[in-house]
Amino acid sequence: MNALAKLKTLTTPSINQIVRTYALKSDLKIKWVRPEKVPCYKPQKSGDLQSLPKFAGSELMKDYRESKELETANEHVRNLFTLEHNRRRQMVENFKEDMVRRVYRHDLDYGSMEAKLGLMTARIRSLQDYMEQFPRQSVVKVQLKELIDKRKRFLRYLRRWDYRRFEYVLEKLDLVYKPYPTHFHWITRKDSLRKLTNIHCDQIKETRLEEYRKQLESQQLDFLEKKLQTLEFIRKEQTECQVPVTVTKEEIQAVRKQYDQLKQKRTAMAESLKAAEES
Fold first, then answer.
1. Which structural domain, as residue segments, surrounds residue 92?
2. How many folded domains does the chain comprise?
3. Where residue 17 falls among pLDDT bands split at 50, 70, 90?
4. 267 part of a folded domain
5. pTM of full prediction above 0.70
6. Of residues 31 and 240, which shows the higher confidence score?
């Protein structure tokens, strides 16, 4: 019986028990949705602005473009050497040559940094196109990730030692360099809500400051008029009482000039608004 009584006292909360009722719900109109996870091999993460182009099926393969026999051959024979009737690898080789030609230094250049980046970019885009069709190919996914990391290392090296050539390669290959982040952090709901709350508070602060600024600007003309009258009154009283004059004529003229300029500006704005409404 004593054990049952102890269990009842433990399970039933006491009257004086502290219950947390804060920080559970927020009255702010802030809604956070977890961002969709984008794999690192996607073009949005890798920095490729273009995908694998669609080559015409009637194009000849790389090794048979200058063949004189195919120029006079039968149509059925010629179709056997086109990209449409051959393996996908032939189309990729054609695309590799096109990417290397964009950045190579001479006709036989396949070993420079630019040519290597062109070859890697062609291979990456072909694997990205393959992954769109077969997303469960884990071996191809690993190869694609390794290639993207290798190209990023090459770009980082080129950016460090020859920035003009780095910009040239990015422009010719339609790439965007996306470096590694300086520090890694998990995307959590708590941190995201904290950032959104800070942004919301900053927006409220800016709107209130803007409203207060407009309120002060609306009172500026009356303030300058009262200031001008007060300065003139002080100068007049000091001269009549024959005491040292603390308000100079230059100060009164400066305030009058500021008042006139502001009045002209307000009248011009009112006239422009009226003309806009009438039109």
1. 43-173
2. 2
3. low
4. yes
5. no
6. 240
Q: How many of the other CB atoms lie within 10 Å of CB of 47?
A: 20
Confidence category of residue 53, pLDDT binned at 50, 70, 90: confident
Same domain for 245 and 161: no
- Domain termination residue (choose one: 147, 173, 199): 173
Return the structure tokens found at 118: 């062109």
pLDDT per residue over 121-136, tens digit each? 999 999 999 999 999 9
How far is the C-alpha of 131 from the C-alpha of 127, rounded, in Å?
6
Q: What is the pLDDT of residues 19-42, one digit of tens each?
A: 555 544 566 677 788 888 888 889
Q: What is the pLDDT of residue 16?
A: 53
3-class DSSP string for the chain: CHHHHHHHHHHCCCCCCCCCCCCCCCCCCCCCCCCCCCCCCCHHHHCECCCCCCCCCCCECHHHCCCHHHHCCCHHHHHCCECCCCCHHHHHHHHHHHHHHHHCCCCCCCCCHHHHHHHHHHHHHHHHHHHHHCCCCHHHHHHHHHHHHHHHHHHHHHHHHCHHHHHHHHHHHCECCCCCCCCCCCCCHHHHHHHHHHHHHHHHHHHHHHHHHHHHHHHHHHHHHHHHHHHHHHHHHHHHCCCCCCCCHHHHHHHHHHHHHHHHHHHHHHHHHHHHHHC
Boundary (domain end) residue, out of 139, 173, 207: 173
pLDDT at residue 27, as a whole number = 66
Q: 122: which residues sit within 8 A by CB, 6+ positions away?
A: 92, 95, 96, 98, 99, 100
Position 145 scores a pLDDT of: 94
Same domain as 247, residue 273: yes
